[in-house]
Amino acid sequence: MVNIFKSTHRFNLICLSKLTRLSNRMNSTECNSKIFDRRKIRNFSIVAHVDHGKSTLADRLLELTGVIKASTENAQVLDQLQVEKERGITVKAVTASLNYTFKNELYLLNLIDTPGHVDFSNEVVRSVTACQGVILLVDANEGIQAQTVAVHSLAKRNNLIIIPTLNKVDLPRADPDNVKSQLNSLFNIDPDTVLSISAKKGWGVKELLEAVITRIPPPDVNPTGYFKAHIIDTWHDKYRGVLCLAYIHSGTVEIGQEVKWQSNPKQHTVKYLALLRPGEEPINKATAGQVVMVGLGPKGGGSVGDHLLSIEATDIDQTNNAQPIKHMVYAGIFPADQSQHIFLSDAIKKLALNDSAVSVNVDSSPALGQGWRVGFLGLLHLDVFTQRLLQEYKAEAILTAPSVPYKIKLKGSKIIKHYKSEEVIITNPLQLPDSKHIEEYYEPFVMGTIITPVEFIGAVTTLCVDRRGTPLPSSAVDEKMTMMQFILPLSEVVIDFHDTLKSITSGFASFDYQDYGFHPSALVRMDILINGTLVEELSTIVHTSRLEYNARRLTEKLKEMIPRQMVQVAIQAVVSGKVYARETLKAYRKDVTAKLYGGDVTRRKKLLKQQAEGKKKMRSVANIKIPRNTFIDVLKR
């Protein structure tokens, strides 16, 4: 009887699974065969701090709507990049259009799973422009973290409906009541409106999905106007060219329709149209309120932030409400071999199309050859970009040490005329003019938010003050946690600040930062001289308080890296002609008297004198050649 019961139960589960998939196929067919009523469309994102369970919740939503089967193999389905699977983080915001029947009505739910790390905040900003609401996910064990504060502020600025949700309530250490109290204290969120789920086990996910339908309004769009859509993402397809992810503001679009870009009046034909589920599902027509993939062919073009319009549109709004991207870190990217320059250039262009947060400018170096100066939002962004270059395009690149942008105020009419502006942004130390032409230096600062247990307040304060930070008023999150804020120089944050913070707080503190603009600072350009000759590639911009430390560290590293020469090599760190650190690399020693077997001492003195004169002459004419590999070892991070 037991075996019969088990067989019957298994049969019922299989039948239910087949019926669910059949129903979803019928729903998809119905959805694609008609213009979807905007009142039945919901566009929403999942936003949270790192590791609070966004991708796991997305998996449960895909299972609940029948997109994927419930299986241990289907984990983090929307994290499609290899780097995402290896690092266990979300790098790209991914859209999935889901069908769900609620109260006998078919709804189209456009879900966008967003990254949680501050280095990929641009993905979150672009995603919320196509949403009317967000699921604010908070770990019931960890409570509110620094990025939670940032994404809540972003949602409020965009006037989005927020559905506060506690995740991981099934874990033994979970404290939902305390986290609800934190939400109420910091964000004034009513505890009764907070949902509790376990994304891993699927508890409460159905209720959350229904809350999305009931709480989030349909998109406020115009279905009858001319076609207008804005691009929230782009990527390159080998055969179809540039593909765009578009949010339709008004009108409809269909295969074969003539359209144009706001930035370029040239007409194009819509050749590809699809919903992402998350795989492509071709459709013939889409209406206002939907998020769809649009392709205009290999020469169709497209860029993030641009608008796609019907050819009848004449009253084009040229204003761009998007905030300009402020790059926090710059680094040089050079091909490992100059014969690979064209291949690497093509790979960088294609990857930059998919990652609109980077800026790419041509650069060159006497030691490393032709390359690019690339701007990133942070060090993790830099790491992921170079890893994607290697994994997705098999392009090997040399990465120089990262630096932050600085601003200078010039003096002197000739210099100002040469730079075409009184204030200049410097992304490369080689661009810095002589100090006599600079009236004032400006350094980028950020406002850092740190949420830490109260027992680590002293250690965190010491760390921030040592990094030239200025404290701001702090506030209590609850009895155990406090939120501290500091104004910090960006150069002190981007290198190892986060790792040090995690170390001194046993991993409990979280950190997020926002741009705080440029402020006057005591900066100097430090040059490296090799036997009196300037090596431009090794010049850096440093704060005067860190000058001696950086000078000593760099000269010591160079002494280890530069191979010994036939002559003595002097390595000096110099600022405005003053030497702040020096290391001497001894020359190879040759015993010219080894072959002497006797005779007068004058023979020995004669040989030593000839050697000394030869070395003196060699030092005066010698060109110290530093191998390219040495530059790579010194300049890389």
Automatic annotation (TrEMBL):
InterPro entries: EF-4 (IPR006297), EFG_III/V (IPR035647), EFG_V-like (IPR000640), LepA_C_sf (IPR038363), LepA_CTD (IPR013842), LepA_IV (IPR035654), P-loop_NTPase (IPR027417), Small_GTP-bd (IPR005225). Its EC number is 3.6.5.n1. It is found in: Mitochondrion inner membrane. The keyword Nucleus does not apply. It is a peripheral membrane protein. Keywords: GTP-binding, Hydrolase, Membrane, Mitochondrion, Mitochondrion inner membrane, Nucleotide-binding, Protein biosynthesis. GO terms for molecular function: GTP binding; GTPase activity; mitochondrial ribosome binding. GO terms for biological process: positive regulation of translation; translation. SUPFAM superfamilies: EF-G C-terminal domain-like (SSF54980), P-loop containing nucleoside triphosphate hydrolases (SSF52540), Translation proteins (SSF50447). It is an enzyme of class 3 (hydrolase). GTP binds at residues 48-55, 113-117, 167-170. GO terms for cellular component: mitochondrial inner membrane; mitochondrial matrix. Residues 39-220 form the Tr-type G domain. It catalyses: GTP + H2O = GDP + phosphate + H(+). The keyword Transcription does not apply. Transmembrane segments: none annotated. Promotes mitochondrial protein synthesis. May act as a fidelity factor of the translation reaction, by catalyzing a one-codon backward translocation of tRNAs on improperly translocated ribosomes. Binds to mitochondrial ribosomes in a GTP-dependent manner. Belongs to the GTP-binding elongation factor family. LepA subfamily. This is Translation factor GUF1 homolog, mitochondrial. It comes from Parnassius mnemosyne.
